[in-house]
Design goal:
Layout (H helix, E strand, L loop, with lengths): L1 H23 L3 E4 L1 H7 L1 H45 L5 H62 L3 E4 L18 E2 L1 H10 L2
Parallel strand pairs: 1-2, 1-3
Helix pairs in contact: 2-5, 3-4
Length: about 190
């Protein structure tokens, strides 16, 4: 076991100077993918469309709630009518009120269940669409970065928009890295 550790240390000592020399020759660029995502015209248009879908869902949900509230108000009027006139009503009139109340209650419950199911289904659909659109946008950004990195002969491009769990940047400083974020944004805005 000692032989393996010593052997590893000898190899490390021999290889390290060469690794440092090669590392000094590496051409590095940095890119802020979050900034590209937030400022690229295409991504902004996609985000507007997603917000419109969310707003449309909220409007439709409000309309459904309003219809349900009308049924609830009608049901409450029946209760108030019964309380106000219950003593003067005939047995048949009480039975009619009870039946109407039960029917309204069933309608309210059914409409509320349908509203919730509809909302949940549409919300899930919008979330899936947003995920698919984000993946598509990130794919286009990645292709643009790779194409620029290849043409400019960068050995490495580092995304500096990431954060650690303690909300600090993953990369505070990258020696001799060229920020290509604005170049990529311009490139993406040109190719529609």
């Amino acid at each position: 076991m000692k032989f393996k550790v010593v052997h590893f240390l000898v190899i490390l000592a021999v290889v390290s100077p060469f690794a440092l020399v090669n590392a000094a020759e590496i051409k590095v660029a940095s890119v802020d993918v979050r900034k590209i995502f937030n400022t690229w015209e295409y991504a902004s248009k996609v985000e507007v469309k997603m917000e419109q879908k969310r707003a449309s869902l909220d409007r439709e949900d409000s309309e459904r709630r309003a219809a349900i509230n009308k049924y609830k108000a009608e049901r409450n009027q029946l209760v108030q009518q019964y309380r106000a006139n219950g003593e003067d009503l005939t047995k048949e009139e009480v039975e009619k009120l009870d039946q109407k109340y039960l029917n309204l209650s069933r309608d309210v419950d059914t409409l509320e269940e349908n509203r919730k199911a509809f909302y949940k289904k549409r919300e899930l659909s919008i979330a899936r669409d947003a995920t698919a659109q984000s993946e598509k946008i990130l794919g286009k950004i990645s292709k643009a970065v790779q194409a620029h990195a290849k043409s400019a002969r960068y050995d490495m491009v580092v995304d500096v928009s990431g954060y650690t769990s303690s909300h600090t940047s993953l990369f505070m400083h990258i020696h001799q890295a060229v920020d290509i974020t604005d170049i990529i944004i311009r490139r993406l805005n040109v190719t529609k």
